[in-house]
TrEMBL record:
UniProt keywords, alphabetically: GTP-binding, Hydrolase, Nucleotide-binding
UniProt-recorded name of the protein: GPN-loop GTPase 3
Pfam family name, one: ATP_bind_1
Function: Small GTPase required for proper nuclear import of RNA polymerase II and III (RNAPII and RNAPIII). May act at an RNAP assembly step prior to nuclear import.
KW Hydrolase (keyword) present: yes
Assembly, per entry: Binds to RNA polymerase II (RNAPII).
Stretches of the chain forming a coiled coil according to its record: none
The keyword GTP-binding is assigned to this record: yes
Family membership noted in the UniProt record: Belongs to the GPN-loop GTPase family.
């Protein structure tokens, strides 16, 4: 018996729900069972039905209306409410065994970087419900092709990695939006870059007084192995399938397989 949970994380609008739908669709096609767990109390309707939906427990709209709070305060309230009612989640998850649960998380990254909501849920899923978990952290490819934005995105991914302490897969989403050769070339530098190249590239566009800071960040990101990104185009089944195979590996779904080196399969020239 094994339970696999995939936490899909990343800033607002990066393509988390689209990826959740794409992976469910792909798994259905190949005859595997998976379900979406919606952890966003403000979620829009999805193509696939949520098997478990936090909005059945509490919704952002109700909290804003009844407690007269703003959207951020209401979101924090919803999660504190969930943490006080984790038995609801236990009951909903019930007996889902031998299948994937894909957790579609809200885009407010402070929920995993500033307040310990997701770390608490993660420990609960691991310790009480025996989940094998991994985090898939999405960043938008068109956003990160500037070095300074890449640093900012990589640091936010690293922060989630350190806080959640889970096997972590970084993904650059919306790769189909990188069309011109110049941008493709720039993006290629970020898939598995040399820190020296990152530093040189930062020097091209950032005020020299930040050189030492950028150098430290590039080395830190490199030391943590954080600069390895897979690429995702949610409409492309092959791209979704590649990410699924990494998830299978890190969650040991497919036993006996050697873990792959991220980026081995990334062929930016094929874009
Ligand atoms: N071109 C392109 N657009 C995409 C891709 N994935 C998602 N989008 C678009 O990006 C927008 C946001 O996608 P969502 O899946 O709602 O993003 P999200 O991260 O779940 O958003 P929040 O729940 O608000 O944090 C939508 O208009 C999607 O159609 C992709 O691979 N390529």
């Amino acid at each position: 018996m094994s339970r696999v949970g995939v936490l899909v994380l990343g800033p607002a609008g990066v393509g988390k729900s689209t990826f959740c739908n794409a992976i469910i669709s792909h798994m259905q096609t190949i005859g595997r069972r998976a379900h979406i767990v919606n952890l966003d109390p403000a979620a829009e309707p999805s193509k696939y039905e949520f098997t478990i939906d936090i909005r059945d427990l509490i919704s952002l709209e109700d909290v804003m209306e009844e407690l007269n709070l703003g959207p951020n305060g209401s979101l924090v309230y919803c999660f504190e409410y969930l943490l006080n009612n984790l038995d609801w989640l236990d009951e909903e998850i019930g007996d889902y065994n031998d299948e994937y649960l894909i957790f579609d998380c809200p885009g407010q990254i402070e929920l995993y970087t500033h307040i310990p909501v997701l770390p608490t849920i993660v420990r609960h899923l691991q310790n009480q419900l025996n989940f094998n978990l991994c985090a898939v952290y999405l960043l938008e490819a068109p956003f990160v092709i500037d070095t300074s934005k890449f640093f900012s995105g990589a640091l936010s991914a690293m922060s989630a990695m350190i806080l959640l302490e889970l096997p972590h897969i970084n993904v650059l989403s919306k790769i189909d939006l990188i069309k011109d050769e110049y941008s493709k070339k720039k993006l290629k530098r970020f898939l598995n870059p040399d820190p020296t190249l990152l530093i040189d590239s930062a020097k091209e566009s950032v005020n020299p007084k930040f050189d030492r800071l950028n150098e430290s960040i590039a080395n830190l990101v490199d030391d943590f192995g954080m600069v390895q990104f897979l690429t995702l185009e949610s409409k492309n089944p092959e791209s979704v399938s590649t990410i699924l195979s990494y998830i299978d590996d890190v969650t040991q779904w497919a036993e006996g397989q050697e873990p792959k080196e991220p980026n081995d399969q990334v062929e930016i020239d094929d874009l």
